[in-house]
Design goal:
- The protein is α+β, with helices and mostly antiparallel strands and 117 residues long.
- The protein has one domain: PDZ domain (Pdz3 Domain), CATH 2.30.42.10.
- Helices cover 18% and strands 29% of the residues.
- It starts with a strand and ends with a strand.
Amino acid sequence: MLQLCTIYACANGTLGLNLSRAPWDPYPWVSGVQAKSSAERGGVRLGDTLLELNGADVLGLRISELANRLQDHWQSGAGVVTLMMWRQQASIDPNEDPAEASHAVVSSRHLCSILLA
């Protein structure tokens, strides 16, 4: 199912999510969401696949390219970012192993260890 997530800028500039993407993955997927983060409040869930960043398709983009686009977006003075996600499951069971759940969907100012800030 498609899920539009709106994430508001946080005082420290972080979104609170990790993205992962292998060279053969057409789209990145969410491999981590920090508790009580802007991403969590915006509806981002572990295992979501990122399809669009602010309405632009992210097909084939590297994580570093996404970070640069996000940095440019924040520097423009924007207060929100929108993420169009594909969610295979309506929700992920909280008792499920997070490492296994992060593979449920296969296919900002700083990016370090694939942490979008």
